[in-house]
Design a protein that fits this description.
The chain is of the alpha+beta class. Helix content is 42%, strand content 25%.
Length: 118
Amino acid sequence: MAGFGIVEVIVSMFLLSILAMAFLPVLVQSLQVSKVNASIATATQLLSADLDRARASGPVCGFNPLETPPEDDAFTVAGSWGTCTVDRPSTLSYKSTVKDAATNEVLAEAVTLILVTE
């Protein structure tokens, strides 16, 4: 009797399927974490671009809030300016927030200060 019989092959396939089922939840969870990490990375890039646009808007008070439509409909980018004072030079704060459009969950948020000289 050389080789494996049908019973041994079926038992080994059964054991391999049990092992595969044990690792399935780990695989699903890693895919979900990967998706969340990709969303946060994209939100951080959008946030950085929004802050760069705010800094490039100029060192004067009285400008309109930036309109920053994201390249993807999955995110919303919103910015708000702080109160401008009459003292010069001064700083003006700009707060940018990136949210998930589907869940409205904040994915990234930051504040930058802009020097106002005029």
